[in-house]
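Hi L.,

You mentioned the student needs an example of a multi-chain input paired with its predicted structure. This one should do, with 388 residues in total across all chains.
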Amino acid sequence: MSKTSRVVVSMPKTAKKGEIIPIRVIVQHDMESGFRHTERGVLVPRDIIRDFVCTYDGVDVFRAELHPAVGANPTFSFFTVATQSAMLEFKWSGDNGYASSLTSQLVVT
Amino acid sequence: MIVRNVLGRSSTQARASWFSLFGMTWSVAWLLLPLVFLTSFTWAQTSLPPRQSGYELMSPATRAMQDDEALNPATFWILDGQTLWNESAGKKNVACAQCHGDAATTMKGVSASFPKMVNGKLLNLQGQINMCRQTKQESSAFQLESKPLLSLETYIGHVSKGMPITVERTAENAEPLEAGRLLFEQRLGQLNLSCAQCHAERAGLKLGGNVIPEAHPTGYPIYRLEWQTVGSLQRRLRNCMTGVRAEPYALGSDELVQLELFLMWRARGMPIETPGVRP
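Structure written out for the whole complex:
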């Protein structure tokens, strides 16, 4: 069964050609490490996001692998150069069929 | 005679902490004694002393996390709460929004007035939400500290962000407020410490490497980095009780709500920060 959750992306809607634009993303996820036990001593199975990728007009501009030591609700802050008006796509995927995505239009003048 | 100032500590205790602050000698201190009585008396009569939110003790990075909605993880609880607010539930199949309308206008300042007396019973905001849920929606109460309850509380709380806490002493809440004060000053646990000993008498000094905050509940429910999630004031209070190696009062117990009332009254006038982020 696939799971999804909320994401918040903050980036400018418009930019000048050649401008460096900041992008910040945060995703709702408990990031259960797989190392914790319940009060009764049963291991809580791992359930984390494994992969995050941002594509700009189909080209990878930022990619990250996530591991059990990453905290809950992981956030990324990165930059890219505005080259042309295009769609930015943000995709998260992880354990137990987890998948979230969001697209955002950037207008370059 | 014991003269109490508004922070809930006796003036003798207050004098003791001022000594260490200014390094005064006893002889000078005795000369200033009448002045101290006078100032603490006029304080209580007129305005509130300056108080410090735990926000001011945080690193610039953690402050930025609280201030920026796109970085504050509690934003997800606000969004979840908004969904629940508009979702019909219970036998009556009504949503919060059907009675209360748009929370952004109707719930303004509401969280700043809790805990309060409702039909003769002291309720915190969670208690009020669950009461509405049981009586108006005819549904089951949310489990305390559960995600939906915290989401609704965070959503209702965040519309009051920036508004002053309005909990005042009234004839109705005087009894639980006094009970809350006694709990604040009650020594607890194997370490035999009261809340007041750290958060009133020694606030601003260090415990380990950390500055002891004044413990004003301005940002609840908070996203606590240590918890990796949003939690209520009661969860935080229980943490401190475990910290002094006492058996914590149960979630939702009268004692914890009384303590909440006293803390909110003690922080009256301070702006609501919900949803706060704390380390």
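You could point out the following to them. Residues 219 and 274 of chain B are 4 Å apart (CA to CA). Residues 1-26, 31-45 of chain B have pLDDT under 50 and may be disordered.

Best wishes,
N.
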